[in-house]
Amino acid sequence: MQLKAILKGAIVAGAMAVMGAGTALAQACEETQFSAKTGQTYLEAETAAMANKDWATAIGKLNQLRNGELNCYEEGAVIRLSAYIKIEQGDRAGAVRDLLDAINKGYIPEDQRAQTYYNIAQIYLQDENLTQSLDYMKRWMQAGGKPDRSQKWQLAVLYQRADNNAEAVKWAEEVRREDGNKFDQQLYDLLVFLYNDTGNQAKLAEVLEALVERNPQERKYWDAIAGNYFAGNEERKAFEVQKAMYLAGLLKTEDELMRIVNFYNRFNAPYHAARVLEKEMNAGRISKTVERMSLLADFYQVAREHEKAIPVIRQAAEMGGGGAMYERLGASYSEIGKWPETEEALQRALEMGGVKDRGNAWVRIGQARFERKDRAGAKEAFRQANNAGGRGWLAFMDSEEYTSDALVCFEVQAALLNVQNEEKICKKLAALGDNMPEGCKTVDARIEAAETKFNDTPECKRAAQPV
């Protein structure tokens, strides 16, 4: 143990005086050596203690010395040897009393006083008395002690354990400066804790980045970086960290993967959200449910990737999505002009029930028939619709002279229907967070504008009137 070695060195120095070698003089003691008789007894005590570990003999010899006449130099040596013996026997409190007694009586030379304070600090540390240990570490430095790298590290740990993290940071940074380019995992882990506790986000980020660079597969550092950005309300940066974690394969659970999906959506990247969601569902890391398939389709549709959305919607419908999902499938087919598929999907939706807008479904069926030159079937569907869209189509078909007007109205109506369909998707996405894709942020205004345009378009008004 380092402390025992230090005390042993001090005692050996005292023993040299017995052989005639002088030592530094204490302020209150002018004696420099043992008397012949006393010196022999002391050497016997020291030999018993340090060479033979014969504590009983050593203590007996010391008591013999204490019972006699001792000069100040001899008493100081006895006290130091007594402290050494008590340390060896585990009596740390007694050792501290001896060392303080030697200091108070002036038996510790000035040039050894700082080291004695350091020894006392280490004894208190062994007893887990952090307050006293730190107090004597301060006295050691005030007496001229210069901490080396190991002692600076000890001070950092002591202050952290004593809940004085501001002071702990100072010493930990001293250690880091002394280390230079040398990397110490314990030091960096302590700095992460201290910077986080003291709220120094900038330094925390710098240390965490260094740790990630050195240990790219260590998940806890990535999490800490993301948490640091979240704490600073820098969600975009937190997202970039999470994205890097995903690309590095560090995110494993379904919740973690869905968080990445939702992040992409929140930051106006629905296509990337769709690609990640689809990839992870195909890999089995995200469960493939009707709800998730519907969400995937939402992402593709908001990103205007309708051809990618259709297979997803069809699969969701086949998985049990009901009439509403077939209604959505038909609407998607109509958006890309696949008319037979449009009618088939919408007819099935009407048969199954659960259709949200039967009138709109019939309009789309009518449009699908019209595009396939089934004018009679189209008129029947438009009459079934029994809404403005259906009536507009009927007016268009019934009056050639109003063909131009009806075409204009159709375009306005189609634009309105498309915006209404987008609004339905955006309402579903709203549950994912406040930051909606840009298209969703303007959908209400665009619906209002489309409705106003539809209602105010003269061609639509005329097309709605009987021929």
TrEMBL record:
Pfam family, one: TPR_8
Keywords: Signal
Span of the signal peptide: 1-26
Organism: Hyphomonas hirschiana VP5
Matches recorded under InterPro entries: TPR-like_helical_dom_sf (IPR011990), TPR_rpt (IPR019734)
Ribosomal protein as UniProt keyword: no
Designated name of the protein: Lipoprotein
